[in-house]
Amino acid sequence: MTTDQVIFIILSVFTLGTALLVVTLRNLFHAALALMATFLGVAGLYVMLDAGFLAAAQLLVYIGAISILLIFAIMMTRRLMNTTESAFNSQGGASLVTAVIGFLVIAWAVSQFSRVLPQVVQKQVDMKPMSPDVIPYIQSSVAAMGQAFVDPNGFVLPFEIASVLLLAGLIGAIIVAWPKAEDEES
């Protein structure tokens, strides 16, 4: 085993372990901390893939902004911290059926891909080396991605739709967390 493989295995186990903690921990604050650790593991995997921009975006956006926002929201919302409701979820059967169907769909997709994979690998072997005029484009891929986000023929519409959806989610979170009249009296 090479050093890269060992680091990948360690990062993968760390990421999957903390992701499992996110969904199994009962304490919401501890689950948010585990989510931050999961995001850190994903950023490490991006570094291993030589995707420095994605790793930096993962660190800044997900760990630096979204996770901190979640922790502040948890800490500032007294209703969630002092809840007396049961943690029992009565939708276990439906979630099991959904998980099994999801697993079957993923297994089917992987089996379809595994049939095509040898042909794709053979085409990769037969390809010519990368021409020198392609290399500067790859080096400026972050700039090209930025151009694609604002180009009317690129991804400007999906980018704006995602922005509106995030704004709607933020407004919805504020409405849900807004103290009700009966909460202020107690």
> What proportion of the residues is helical, as a percent range?
over 70%
How many helices does DSSP assign? 9
**Which superfamily, in CATH terms, is the homologous superfamily of the largest domain?**
NADH-ubiquinone/plastoquinone oxidoreductase chain 6, subunit NuoJ
Classification by helices and strands: mainly alpha
Architecture (CATH level 2) name of the largest domain: Up-down Bundle
What is the overall silhouette?
A: globular
Main beta-sheet strand count, sense and barrel state: none
Kindly provide the radius of gyration, computed on alpha-carbon positions and rounded to a whole number of angstroms: 22 Å
Strand content: under 5%
Unreliable residue runs = none
Sketch the topology as an H/E string, one letter per element.
HHHHHHHHH
TL;DR of this structure?
The model has no long low-confidence stretch (mean pLDDT 77). This protein has 186 residues and is an all-alpha fold. Helices cover 80% and strands 0% of the residues.
